[in-house]
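call fold(seq) -> tokens
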Amino acid sequence: MPTIKITYSDSSYKPNAEVLAGKLNFPLVDSAEISQQSSQNGQADYYLEYASDGLCLKSAVRNEHGPIRCDFNSGASTHRRKYGGGNGQAIAKAVGVSGKFAPKVLDLTAGMGGDGFVLATLGCEMLLLERNPVVHSLLNDGLQRAAIAGLEDTELAAIAARISLLDTDAGTYLKALPTGPCADIIYLDPMFPERKKSAKVKKEMQAFHGIVGADEDASELLELALARARYRVVVKRSSSAGYLADTAPSYSLEGKSTRFDVFALRKLPG
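ret:
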């Protein structure tokens, strides 16, 4: 894993940075001490920085890529929320969202929360699990800022209220539950190593892959999910990828670059 340190843009955010540094057991450095040098010269590869627009992950290499942060109350998230196609979106069809059914969804590999937020905008009650401490910190900060923005946006407030986040390993979580279904739908979007670098893959995502690593237990998670979902399990895959664990789904919904493999366990209500 790359070397990561915690910092802050000005002293008003130092308390937040101190709390996060203690939680993650990462070094805390004053932003004034940071120079854009390599980790070989005593610097980090990345910095988690608190600033006025929230927590972000920044590369120590100047101009390598932009800051990575969760932002649910502006930009692409707002546009998709308002104009994304509603229940006609492939992810909505895969999960089974309809005018009569808004399922409770357990997202085992939440990542930066993009899919979970989309489903919450469609009325789903979301429980997000994320075990990577850096990703969890970014996602938690984004959700907190969305809740604050919701004080002036009732629609956003309702969406944020439908999302819960746990800092936990999905396999451990599922194994600790009593037997029987734990959610209407279980959603799984495992991270896999890039087979080759491509110009089509943004530098931000290349960095993300390096920090998160691969979900080596993805096949086990699918097996656990199939035993715990009430109605179906949905696995998100690259359109060119094979089936997870070489297990054929009930059917797939194909997109230009993404595929949703749907394991239907029983008929949806409604």
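Confidence is low (pLDDT under 50) at residues 36-40.
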